[in-house]
Each structure stands twice: as C-alpha cells, then as structure tokens.
C-alpha cells in the first residue's frame, strides 16, 4: 500500500516510517522543511510538502495514497485548545479526500478519552465525548467522518517513550532541572499509562492493515505508572531531591504542566491486544528513564 503519513518527521512518525517500509509499504511522508524532506528521503520515503495549517496540502497527500496515518500535532501546550481545534480541521480535510472509498484513515488521540471518569481505567470501547481534555475534538471529528462512511480508526496514545523522549515527562525533567528538585503532588499515587515508541509504531501499522472502522486501539504497555515513581526516576537521573508538594504549590512549581500532573488516568490495552494480535515488547517507562541521559 502507498501510505500518506502526517507527522512523518516527528517523534512517533519517524518510527512509523521504517515500520511501514519494513512491512513492504510505500511511504509518502509530509514535510514542512527542507531538512525534514531530506530526512524522509534518507529513510527511503517519498516526500509530500505540506502543513497542518494548509488543508489543501493534506487533501492532496491523502488523495494519492491507499491509506492515511495521521500523527502530526502541534505540541505547543500554551495553545492546547487551539491546537486541538487545528487537529480537528486536519482530520476533516484528510477525511474529505477519502470519502466514498474504503481507504483506511488512522487518526491519533489520547487514552484519557477512553475513561468514563477521573481514575477509572480507560478502555477501547469507551469514547467519553464529555471528557474535559480538549483532544476530544479529534475523536468528535472522527465520529462525524465515520457517520459519513469513512473507514476511520483511532490509535490512542499514553506517554510514549524511549531513552530520548518521554511525552509530558520530558518537560517535567526540564522543570526538575530548573527548580533543583523533582516533585510530585500529595502522595504521588496518581498514574500515567505508558508505551514504548517501537510498540506504538507497530500498532499504527496493524491498525492500518487490520483495523476495523470505528475501532479504537490503545498503545499501552503499562496501565499506570505512579507520579511518585516517575519523580523518583527523574530525581535519580538529575541527582536532585525528590519531594512532595501540595496542590496549592503546584501551579507555581509546574507552570502549564500543573493541569496534567495530578491526573489519575490508567489505561488498558487488553482489547487492542486481543483484536490485533499486538503485544508490547519494548522496555518499560522507568527502565527507559533510568537509561536516559538527562
């Protein structure tokens, strides 16, 4: 298959490219810059110049492909709501190019959307459209396309990690370095789900090849790693004290990260594993943090 991949030069997309090529697919990777285009050529992919802000470039890329994987996202969390709306528009543009065909579209969301309430295990059969996470806009856009007959499925991401990057944990490391302490809130029992980068890349491929319209898949290797365990790993890596802080102190300490650090959001991948035969094999989060060079 010829696969159009948005976010092809990003953290996750750059792992999906070789995964697809190894499986015998052709990859059309979207790139905004000359540097990104060259990286795709070096990896063996075809280049499509485009941008999330340019819906016509998204439609053009999807139109020349047998399937689409959409991983591009603007990770400026100071504009998180606006960027989620941007993602909604991108999904709409990609879907418009695939309407009337059975060509698959795999979009990206977060595992939190599979939880019915704070602290409740997220599962693939739940789509909480009243969830306060603005990323719900992506799944709402997907639902509209499904109703229009687009062959769409969703990969929901936990904290995707390797030894170089670990999702929202990476900016937590920066805060700990700046403040000289690695902090967690309260008793640090709240949990974040995690999954290794290579496991996530393999799941995107399987969702494209074997996924069913309307299905949601979780790239979860660990259902929940406590915030205290994460803070302790950061403390070891930076050789700084690990301390508990109150909710009142969190805003000043964490800045924009405060909205995330208290969330308890465990997630399961049991249904994903059963449906796709996908089984995570990569290193666990704390192991990668202990191997990371902070």
Report on the structure:
46% of the residues are buried. By secondary structure, the protein is an alpha/beta fold. Helices cover 42% and strands 19% of the residues. It is globular, with a radius of gyration of 19 Å. The longest helix has 19 residues, at 80-98. A seven-stranded parallel beta sheet has the order 3-2-1-4-5-6-10, with helices on both faces. A three-stranded mixed beta sheet has the order 7-9-11. The protein has a two-stranded parallel sheet with strand order 8-12. The chain contains twelve helices and twelve strands. The protein has helices spanning 13-22, 34-43, 55-63, 80-98, 136-147, 169-179, 197-210, 227-238, 247-254, 258-261, 270-276, 285-291, and strands spanning 2-6, 26-31, 46-49, 67-70, 105-110, 152-157, 159-161, 182-185, 191-196, 216-218, 222-226, 242-245.
Shape: globular
Weakly predicted, low-confidence segments: none
Gap from first CA to last CA: 39 Å
The helix/strand order is EHEHEHEHEHEEHEEHEEHEHHHH
Question: Approximately how much helix is present in the residues?
Answer: 40-55%
What key phrases describe this protein's structure?
294 residues; three-stranded mixed beta sheet; 12 helices; globular
Summarize the structure.
The chain is of the alpha/beta class.
Detail the topology: elements first, then pairings.
Elements: E1 2-6, H1 13-22, E2 26-31, H2 34-43, E3 46-49, H3 55-63, E4 67-70, H4 80-98, E5 105-110, H5 136-147, E6 152-157, E7 159-161, H6 169-179, E8 182-185, E9 191-196, H7 197-210, E10 216-218, E11 222-226, H8 227-238, E12 242-245, H9 247-254, H10 258-261, H11 270-276, H12 285-291
Parallel strand pairs: 1-2, 1-4, 2-3, 4-5, 5-6, 6-10, 7-9, 8-12
Antiparallel strand pairs: 9-11
Helix pairs in contact: 1-7, 3-4, 4-5, 6-8, 8-12
């Amino acid at each position: 298959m010829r696969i159009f991949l948005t976010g092809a030069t990003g953290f996750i997309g750059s792992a999906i490219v070789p995964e697809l090529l190894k499986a015998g697919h052709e990859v059309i990777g979207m790139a905004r810059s000359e540097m990104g285009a060259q990286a795709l050529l070096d990896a063996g992919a075809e280049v499509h110049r485009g941008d999330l802000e340019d819906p016509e470039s998204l439609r053009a890329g999807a139109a020349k492909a047998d399937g689409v994987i959409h991983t591009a996202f603007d990770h400026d969390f100071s504009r998180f709501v606006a960027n989620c709306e941007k993602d909604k528009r991108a999904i709409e543009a990609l879907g418009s190019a695939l309407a009337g065909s059975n060509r698959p579209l795999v979009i990206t969301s977060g595992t939190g959307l599979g939880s019915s309430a704070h602290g409740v295990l997220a599962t693939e059969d739940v789509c909480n459209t009243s969830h306060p996470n603005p990323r719900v806009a992506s799944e709402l856009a997907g639902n509209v396309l499904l109703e229009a007959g687009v062959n769409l499925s969703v990969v929901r991401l936990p904290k995707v990690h390797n030894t170089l990057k670990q999702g929202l944990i990476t900016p937590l490391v920066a805060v700990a370095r700046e403040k000289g302490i690695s902090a967690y809130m309260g008793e640090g029992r709240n949990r974040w789900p995690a999954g290794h980068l290579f496991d996530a890349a393999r799941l995107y491929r399987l969702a494209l090849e074997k996924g069913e319209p309307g299905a949601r898949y979780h790239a979860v290797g660990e259902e929940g790693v406590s915030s205290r365990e994460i803070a302790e790993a950061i403390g070891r890596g930076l050789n700084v004290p690990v301390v508990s802080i109150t909710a009142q102190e969190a805003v000043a300490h964490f800045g924009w990260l405060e909205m995330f650090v208290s969330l308890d959001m465990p997630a399961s991948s049991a249904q994903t594993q059963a449906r796709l035969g996908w089984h995570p094999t990569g290193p666990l989060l704390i192991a990668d943090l202990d191997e990371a060079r902070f």
